[in-house]
Design a protein that fits this description.
Helices cover 37% and strands 24% of the residues. It has a nine-stranded mixed beta sheet. The protein has a six-stranded parallel beta sheet with strand order 3-2-1-4-5-6, with helices on both faces. The chain has twelve helices and 17 strands. It has helices at residues 2-9, 20-31, 44-54, 63-68, 84-93, 108-121, 135-144, 174-177, 181-198, 296-299, 312-327, 338-357, and strands at residues 12-16, 35-40, 58-60, 74-77, 97-100, 125-126, 150-158, 202-210, 215-216, 220-221, 227-234, 239-245, 254-261, 265-269, 275-280, 283-288, 361-362. By secondary structure, it is an alpha/beta fold. The protein has two domains: 2-130, Rossmann fold; 134-305 and 337-362, Dihydrodipicolinate Reductase, domain 2. The chain is globular, with a radius of gyration of 20 Å. A hairpin with a 3-residue loop joins β13 (254-261) and β14.
Length: 363
Amino acid sequence: MLDIQRQLAEVRVGIVGTGFIGRIHARAARQVGARLVGVAGADLASAQEGAQALGAERAFASAAELIASGCVDVLHVCTPNHLHAPLALAAMDAGLSVICEKPLATDSATARKMAERAREKELVGAVPFVYRFHPMVREARARLADLGRVSLIQGSYLQDWLLESTDDNWRVDPELGGPGRTIGDIGSHWFDLVEFVTGDRITRLCAQTSVVVPHRVGSGPVLTEDLATVQFATASGALGSVAVSQVAPGRKNRLFLEVSAASGSLAFDQENPEQLWLGGRSGSQALVRDPLSLSEAARRYSPLPAGHPQGFHDCFEAFVADTYAAIGGELRDGLPTFDDGARAGQLTDAALRSAHDGGWVTC
C-alpha cells in the first residue's frame, strides 16, 4: 500500500479547463494523492483563478505553455469538445500521458488517430467512462458471465438540464460540441457500459433523433439533437434498444441498464447505485452493496462498509487512481482507454448516419 501511495504522489498533474469538470478532475487527483502542479485556462487570469480554486501550485498562461513546461507527467483535458483532439495530440507529442474528457474528438476519424498516437508513443490515454467504476457495475459484469447467452439489452440515459428554451450551453453549438450532442455526450456512456458489462460488441444499429427545443436563447436555431432512440444488435445475436434525452422532465442523471440472459436478468440504475436488481424465473431480489458479499472484482472498488453510500466522486477517484497506476506500469482491468473513446466515437457517428439516412448501419 505504501508503494502505491508513493507512486501516486510522484505523478505530476496538469489540467486544462477550469469549469465544473476540471474541478472534478482536480479533486480526484488530490484525493488519490497526486501532485497537482499546474492549471491552464482561457487566459492567464482565468488560470490564476482556477489554480486557486482547484488547489494547483501554479497557473499557466496557455495550454501550450503548460504542455511545454516539463513540469507534468499527465495532462487532463477538460475543455469544450472541439479542443480535445489538438490538446491531447500536442500533449502526447510532448511525451505526456493524457486523460481526455469524452468525446475524444468531434469526429470518429480523429478519435482513432488519437488512439493510434497513444499506442505509437506508448503512453497512457484514458477517457472518463467512470460509470464502469461503480462497484455494482463490476458486480453486474462478474455475475453476467455466469448467466448464459444474453438475449436482450435495454435502457436509457435521461436528463432534463436542457429542457427549457432559456437553457443553453456550448454543447448545443455543433462547432464547439460536435454534431452529436446527446448521443455523444451521454449516449456514449451508455454504449460503453453495455459493451463493458456484456463483453459483447454492437455490430449494427438504427437510430432516430429529435430536436424538441428548436430555438434557444443565445444560440438561435438548434442544430443538434435533444433526444435519440437507438435499436441495435450485437455480435452474439442479442437485441437491444436505448433512449437518450437531455429534455426528460424530472430526470437528472438517470443512466439505466437492464440485461436479460438465459438463466437470469440484472439491472443497474445510476441514480440508485448501491443496489443491483437480480431477476430469475423463481423470483427476484435487490442486491445491496456490501463488500463482504461482493465478487472480488466489485470489492476492489468498494472501500466503504455497507450502508455508507458511494457515488460519482468515488467512481472518478477510482478511475483517476487506475489511470495513474497505469502510468506507473500497473494496468488494471477495466481502465477505459483512448481505444474505448474511439469506439464511442464510431458508435456516435453510426447513430448520426442512421438517423440522417434512415435504416440500419453497421458498426
